[in-house]
Amino acid sequence: MQQEDRFIIVREDLDIDPVTVATEGLLIGRLVECELLLNHPAVSRVQAGIRNFDGNYYVFGFRASNPIKLNGKPVDENEALASGDILEVGPFEIEIDISEEALTLKVALHIGHGVDSLTAGPDTETGELDELSVPPKKKKAVKPRAATLPGTKALDIFWDKRIRDAGKMVRPSPLFPRGQRRAGKAQFNWIPTTDLASRWPASYFVWSVIIVGFLAVTAALWYTNAYASAPLSHAHAKTSMDLVPSIAAQPSGNSCTNCHSFTGNMEASCSGCHQAEAFTATVIDPHVAAGIGCVSCHAEHQGADFKPAEAALFTCSECHNDANSRTYNGRSVSTPHQGGSGYPVVDGRWKWKGLNDEEWLTKEIGIERLPGDSEEQWRSKQFHALHMHRVRTVNDIPGNAAGELSCSSCHDSFDPIDRATPRKTCDDCHNGKIEAATRRIVIVQDQPNCTSCHVQHVKSKRHWNPALMVQR
């Protein structure tokens, strides 16, 4: 884990004592949670950051449309800092002083300076200066500095996480209401009564219930005996919801008509019933294109002891193997990853296709694709964010102070990038499966778990291994 550095903030623009901050990376911006708070409309919420790397301090610009300036020049990505440097952020000037103990930032405010929309130059007709014009400042001598730090994925993930964590700490405020405005006070106050209507005899209802109930039971028994090839599984025969969290809207209760009807197909019945708070039935796009649906993996009528959920896991290996000669809409399948856990980078390129926009939103991570991100960069950012923001460490794998995965959990080096160690750490997590409700072993520990990476039901909150997931 990166050691925290000391930053001393001296506010000449405010009547306060110097403040010492210990952090891995100092955030500069208008957001209250930034370590260096610059409260001015010309300053972005999170505009820049400063971090120590190999004994040198670097300033990173986060807003290309509103860049921070170093000695009068905008910072595009990152620049090394040296004592005597001047940072300009809106109307603020920050003088840098670096010592062995800490980096000191001396903040001064110059009203009317550094805000392009408020500063005017010489009048083109009269040649006179506008009253808001500010004479140029003397440039301070700049000591030799380190070279620009090359951009790395680890740094991108670090700053993304720092900015995201700062945004989470924003306290609720009446200025930002969560709900919409309620409707007006108009109400419909008249309530009908039945005191003047003649009532039907109670016997009508009693006999109606008896006749309808008898016909319903008879029809159900006849329908089952005529068409069922074998009894339903226990999961579809039970009359109560004993699995928590539930994966269905209601128990099937051994009813045929819950799945089979004259007006709709079985796929619609499956997806309609399996709509619960913790689970939503979905099928990924590649399976839809191949003509694979719910019943392709979760077959029924194979006996009371048959378990559809477990059968689906074994269906993966039954279809995806070299011995399967069947084609799916003209495409064949083979054994993936040579029968073991895979790694998404092959010959330096990302083989993993990434998540689509709908799937990515369900992860609730808060990292968005930047306009300049290529397809390869976005896949890499998705993959690393999923592991760093969602997964705990196991089996003595190193992590951060919160017990979450970090860059060094899987990579031993970054220049050049180490891709040998992650191939081993994949096997430490992506294997085995234990049913959370019953603690039954569904997949043994030394066998790969396909669904830990290839998630079919992307909107399900029933994780493949809840013990590994970070609680948000």
Describe the protein:
17% of the residues are buried. The chain is an alpha+beta fold and 472 residues long. It starts with a strand and ends in a 24-residue tail after the last strand. Helix content is 23%, strand content 16%. The model is unreliable at 115-142 and 169-179 (pLDDT under 50).
Sequence of secondary-structure elements: EEEEEEEEEEEEHHHHEEHHHEEHHHHEE
Distance between termini?
A: 22 Å
Number of E-state strands = 18
Secondary-structure-derived class: alpha+beta
- Helix proportion of residues, in percent? 10-25%
Poorly predicted residue ranges: 115-142, 169-179
CA-based gyration radius: 32 Å
Mean of all residue-level pLDDT scores: 75
Strand order, largest beta sheet = 2-1-12-11-10-7-8
Into which percentage range does the β-strand content fall?
15-25%
Which tags fit this structure?
472 residues, alpha+beta, five-stranded mixed β-sheet, elongated
Topology:
Elements: E1 5-11, E2 19-23, E3 25-29, E4 36-37, E5 48-53, E6 56-61, E7 69-70, E8 73-74, E9 78-80, E10 86-89, E11 92-98, E12 103-109, H1 153-168, H2 202-227, H3 234-237, H4 266-273, E13 275-276, E14 279-280, H5 285-289, H6 294-297, H7 308-319, E15 345-346, E16 349-350, H8 357-362, H9 375-390, H10 407-410, H11 421-429, E17 431-434, E18 441-448
Parallel strand pairs: 1-12, 3-4
Antiparallel strand pairs: 1-2, 3-5, 5-6, 6-9, 7-8, 7-10, 10-11, 11-12, 13-14, 15-16, 17-18
Helix pairs in contact: 1-9
